[in-house]
Amino acid sequence: MKALRYWKMSALAVTIMLVAACGSSRSMSSKSDKLPEQTSKKSKKGVLLADSIEKDVYLQRVASNAQTTRYITSKVNFCVEVGNRQMKLTGNLKMKRDDVIRLQLMAFGFVEAGRLEFTQDYLLIVDRINKQYLKVPYVQLEFFRHSGVDFNMLQSLFWNELFQPGKARLTERNLKKFTTDTGVDNNITVSFENDVLSYRWLTDQETARIKMANVLYSNYLRGNYQLNWDYGDFKANNRKMFPMKHNVTFNTPDKEVKFEMMLNNLGNDEDWEPRTKLSGKYRQMPADEILRRFMSL
């Protein structure tokens, strides 16, 4: 029962963070209370951000840091904090470019207790212990339907990449819609606005590497939701650098969820089935029932 409770709380934390997207006043810089205002001053390395040519060159550098491999797999250590409750679990992360993101949550280190699977079309949550599952198209999830958050955005957050809502790939033309601004500690902020959503990426000017992604959803009736996704401990993966440490903080008007994911044994394994198949022993749960159970924890 203890392992089941751990899995439920972990699934709640991950689901809330990734399905809802983002509201607090946290900054993208630890030494500033807000994102920097637009400026035409030169940064320490001489990038003139008011110069559109220099801006375009820098954005191309950021975009070029994206992984070229089609698969990313890794063992994972999870730490989830919801309110005053904290738990640690192990698991696996398996991702196939433009197809699926899968998180397997393990009990006692070797028994799969639960699984979250994001595909282009739906979200799947599997409770292995109670033989239950939830499979729901994104169009049936209110936040996805109204905010424009989709699989491509989730994939970009996991893969440490720039993204533009509704676009599977960033082209040179897409990048021209982004803005840049100098920040403290040799950082450059990349920004993009889209209706009720605001996007910020904190990047290191020298490496053009994304250090943090920030998504803010502002709605007069629903309030503000904010997601901060910090990246650290970069390691080489097929001649590209990939973050081994992911710290995620998700804020709603009345709750904060913290989620830490530490990768180890990073690889590019292709020998796995990208779609979960469940036997007839599993019972599908209505979305409102499983969410009600999660929210009651």
List the helices and strands and how they pair.
Layout: H1 2-20, H2 52-64, E1 71-82, E2 85-96, E3 100-107, E4 111-119, E5 122-127, E6 132-137, H3 142-147, H4 151-159, H5 172-175, E7 179-182, E8 187-194, E9 197-204, E10 209-219, E11 223-237, E12 240-251, E13 256-267, E14 283-284, H6 287-295
Characterization of the model:
The protein has 297 residues and is of the alpha+beta class. It has six helices and 14 strands. A 14-stranded mixed sheet has the order 7-8-9-10-11-12-13-1-2-3-4-5-6-14. A hairpin with a 4-residue loop joins strand 7 (179-182) and strand 8. It is globular. The protein starts with a helix and ends with a helix. Residues 6-48 have low confidence and may be disordered.
Overall morphology: globular
**What integer is the average pLDDT?**
80
Indicate the proportion of strand residues. Answer: 35-45%
- Structural class designation: alpha+beta
The SSE string, one letter per element, is HHEEEEEEHHHEEEEEEEEH
Would you count the extended β strands for me? 14
With strands numbered from the N-terminus, the spatial order across the biggest sheet is 7-8-9-10-11-12-13-1-2-3-4-5-6-14
Query: Whole-number radius of gyration?
Result: 19 Å
Count of helical segments?
6
Spans where pLDDT lies below 50 across 5 or more residues: 6-48
Through-space gap between termini: 14 Å
User: Helicity range of the residues?
Assistant: 10-25%
Largest sheet: 14 strands, mixed
